Amino acid sequence: MLIDDFERAIAILRKIKNLGVRVAMDDFGTGYSSLSYLQAFPFDKIKIDQTFIAKIGTNNQATAIIHAIVGLGRALALPVIAEGVETEEQLAFLVTEGCDEVQGYLSDGHSRSLTTGTC
After folding, report:
1. How many angstroms from the chain centroid is the CA of residue 59?
2. What is the mean pLDDT of residues 81-95?
3. Which helix (H) or strand (E) covers residue 93, if one does?
4. How far is it, in rounded angstroms, from Cα 70 to Cα 79?
């Protein structure tokens, strides 16, 4: 989404977080997701868009982007979730990269932690 009133959006997200709701940057790497949003908004997690996950093993650029997003999340102390994980090959790659959680067919459509075994 394109945000017209940045300050108001930040204030609303902070109020939501004060209620105990966790906020994730969804579909990171596509659409209107932006590095400046990661800096400005109080996100708790980054979710890698499934279009990158689907290309694991077939597209070097997609795997490089996933590597970079996981590294960015680590540097910002934000857990990273991979959306649309459907194969063992994808899961193995994401474990190797240090991704924190996965969502998709292999996790019954729910988020699954790769570090603790729970969410």
Report:
1. 19
2. 94
3. helix 88-97
4. 8
Coarse DSSP helix, strand, coil percentages of the chain, rounded to the nearest 5 percent? 45, 15, 45
Report the Cα 71 to chain-centroid distance in Å.
11
Residue 89 falls in the annotated catalytic set: no
State the pairing for strand pair 80-82/101-102: parallel
CA 92 to chain centroid, in Å, comes to 17
Size (the chain), residues: 119
Give the single-character DSSP code of 105. Answer: G
pLDDT in tens, 18-67: 999 888 877 676 666 677 778 878 889 999 999 999 999 999 999 999 99
Give the residue among 26, 75, 79, 22 at the shortest CA–CA distance from 49: 26
28's enclosing H/E stretch is strand 24-28
**Burial of residue 23, with CB atoms counted within 10 A of its CB: 0-12 exposed, 13-18 middle, 19 or more buried:** middle
Q: Which one of 83, 88, 89, 97 is the catalytic residue?
A: 83
Written as one letter, the residue type at 8 is R
